[in-house]
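Run log // design_07
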């Protein structure tokens, strides 16, 4: 086997090992992932988009509260949000923080869906996944991560969306180069995780980042990945040097 092929195989089996170990360590509860929660209850990509925008720079718990209040006070359709008073949207989503800019993104996005896609988010998602990603990224408030969460959660395209937890854990494990751009980091993780594992890998890496591989002080003694981790090897090497 050629060295490059052998390397790709080794990366993929590393990915499988990571997923298997994390699966034994964590259970994925939908309410802890607002985008997944929105998808499982509605199968509606528009709701997933709204949930993902609400989750930017806040916790999934706060985003879920905002989503539920928005549904109750305004409604969760492009028509309802595009016609609502801005102040009503702001009041409903206040708990998620940055509520003024998020309300503006939600309303502008909803107006675009109404005027350009016949009121249906599904029309925006037609076509090949690459051009769909670019179309989604053209919506107000939607960057790489939000687009990837929407694509992966709805099953349109399997990738590994990189939020703060995924980026940090992947970097510590040595799966992603320190200082890599979003696109480079995503390509690195796609080389590690098979398509069918990518969404689950994303969710499990988030769980790991929240509970064990914490930002300020990782709890390496509780980690099932120590023998695979670059950060751990370097820290241990530094202690024994
Ligand atoms: S060994 Fe420590 S740094 Fe490495 S993944 Fe586990 S918790 Fe994070």
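design_07 sequence
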């Amino acid at each position: 086997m050629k060295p490059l092929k052998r390397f790709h195989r080794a990366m993929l089996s590393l990915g499988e090992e990571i997923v298997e170990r994390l699966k034994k360590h964590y259970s994925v509860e939908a309410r802890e992932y607002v985008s997944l929660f929105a998808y499982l209850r509605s199968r509606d990509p528009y709701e997933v988009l709204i949930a993902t925008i609400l989750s930017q720079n806040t916790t999934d718990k706060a985003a879920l509260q905002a989503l539920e209040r928005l549904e109750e006070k305004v409604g969760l359709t492009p028509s309802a949000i595009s016609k609502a008073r801005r102040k009503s949207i702001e009041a409903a989503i206040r708990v998620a923080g940055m509520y003024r800019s998020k309300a503006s993104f939600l309303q502008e996005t909803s107006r675009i869906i109404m005027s350009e896609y016949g009121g249906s988010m599904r029309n925006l998602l037609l076509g090949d996944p690459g051009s769909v990603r670019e179309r989604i990224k053209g919506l107000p408030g939607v960057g790489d991560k939000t687009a990837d969460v929407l694509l992966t959660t709805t099953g349109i395209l399997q990738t590994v969306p990189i939020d703060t937890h995924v980026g940090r854990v992947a970097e510590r494990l040595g799966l992603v180069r320190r200082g890599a751009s979003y696109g480079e980091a995503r390509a690195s993780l796609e080389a590690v995780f098979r398509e069918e594992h990518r969404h689950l890998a994303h969710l499990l890496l988030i769980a790991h980042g929240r509970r064990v591989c914490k930002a300020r002080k990782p709890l390496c003694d509780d980690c099932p990945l120590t023998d695979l981790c670059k950060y751990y090897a370097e820290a241990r090497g530094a202690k024994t040097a």
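The two ends are 38 Å apart (CA to CA).
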